[in-house]
Amino acid sequence: MSEFDLIRRHLTGLGAGRDDVLLDVGDDCAVLRVPAGRELAVGIDTLVAGVHFLPDCDPAALGWKALAVNLSDLAAVGAEPAWATLAITLPEADEAWLAAFARGFGELAAAEDVRLVGGDVTRGPLTITVQAHGLVPSEHVLRRSGARPGDLICVSGAIGDAGLALKHLLAGEPVDGYLRRRLERPTPRVALGEVLRDLATSAIDLSDGLLADLGHVLAASGCAARVELERLPLADQVAAAVAEHDDWSLPLSSGDDYELCFTLPRTAAAQLPVLAAAAGCPLTTIGEIEAGAGLRCVRADGSIWTAPGPGYDHFG
Ligand code: ADP
Ligand code: MG
After folding, report:
1. Ligand 1 centre and the CA of 94: distance in Å?
2. How far apart are CA 235 and CA 173, in angstroms?
3. What separation in Å is there between the alpha carbon of 120 and the centre of ligand 2?
4. What DSSP string runs through 158-210?
5. What is the pLDDT of residues 206-259, one digit of tens each?
6. Is the pLDDT of residue 312 over 70?
7. Which ligand minimizes its atom distance to the CA of 101?
């Protein structure tokens, strides 16, 4: 099976059909039409075997996740996903593996109206890079830098699920279906990003843990924050793990949540239920932006919880 056979068989025609694709997989470049009044949002993420996923993980889930993490970045700037490219490095031409990978990737791509329009296939240690392209109305881009003192801090869904699933997997312990899905098939909050465009003052997607990612918002916005720990949206399993040792690292510092964290002017608080209904996911207020610098995590009794270490850093 040659490189070109693999591409033709498994990586052609993947995802949604879109009439803004002028040149698809099979030519030297993809050629794509950006409509007037829209800006092009571009993000890229690499998944390395042994670093971002366990080498023996389900290839269909990996295909889903490789796209999902990129769509999560598009959601964080309020962009509507449109196109993706895929650079894949494989140790060998394992057709069954690639077919399953393409199935998982294609499933999410079709669901989110994304077309796979090109890429590259090389041989080497298993590595997957996806670049996602989205469209966002001019003047409506969500940024990290717009949070202001008094704004509410909100998160979508629940946090810490993927961290707990990974902890169980690494310990050789059983993982229930909910936690496994949250780790392997995260739901990018695309619809939420779109409805936040006109309301949120800032947004970021949670890939490295709430402390690190909210920290980026605070740094970009020049603000401080207070997070109320008892308000964090936690699945029962995560809440139980936290309660066991009063250790909040799981929801605050473990990665791979792929939820959105955003700030809203206090005057928009009443809109949260409307936004949640439009986005199809729960939204929870977890704290408030303050003047100054730094992030305080406050327990229900008013005491401050201090993180034992910083979030994940590839070079840290
Ligand atoms: P070139 O040699 O001109 O760079 P390639 O041989 O790398 O082209 O790729 C041939 C065609 O297949 C191109 O249209 C390219 O975008 C597409 N392609 C290659 N790898 C992938 C992939 N992993 N996913 C989707 N399309 C791919
Ligand atoms: Mg090439």
Report:
1. 18
2. 18
3. 5
4. -SSHHHHHHHHHHTT----HHHHHHHHS----HHHHHHHTTT-SEEEE-SS-H
5. 999 999 999 999 999 999 999 999 999 999 999 999 999 888 999 999 999 999
6. no
7. 1
What is the distance between the alpha carbons of residues 246 and 301, in angstroms, rounded to a whole number? 13
Q: Burial of 170 by CB count in 10 Å (0-12 exposed, 13-18 middle, 19+ buried)?
A: exposed
pTM for the full predicted model:
0.95
Alpha-carbon torsion 171, 177, 178, 184, what sign?
positive
What is the residue type of 96? A
- The answer to whether residues 86 and 63 touch, using CB atoms and an 8 Å cutoff, is no
CA distances from 5 to 17, 20, 87, 98, 308 (A): 21, 26, 16, 12, 50
Q: How far apart are CA 88 and CA 157, in angstroms?
A: 30
Longest dimension (CA), the chain: 63
Q: Which residue lies with its CA nearest to atom 21 of ligand 1?
A: 119
Residue 308 has a pLDDT of 76
User: Left if phi > 0, otherwise alpha if psi is -120 to 50, otherwise beta: which for 172?
Assistant: left
Phi and psi based region of residue 287 (left: phi greater than 0; alpha: psi -120 to 50; beta: remaining): left
**% residues pLDDT > 70 (the chain):** 97
Q: Is 120 in the pocket of ligand 1 (CB under 6 A)?
A: yes
Q: Which residue has the tokens 């309660």?
A: 243
Give the model's pLDDT for residue 245: 82
DSSP classification of residue 216: H
Asked which of 5-14, 64-73, 305-314 is least confident by mean pLDDT, the reply is 305-314
What token pair was written down for 11?
Answer: 């990586």
What is the pLDDT averaged over residues 106-125?
97
Phi and psi angles of residue 177, each rounded to the nearest 5 degrees, phi first:
-60, -40
State whether the beta carbon of 27 lies less than 6 angstroms from ligand 1.
yes
Q: Is 121 in the pocket of ligand 1 (CB under 6 A)?
A: yes
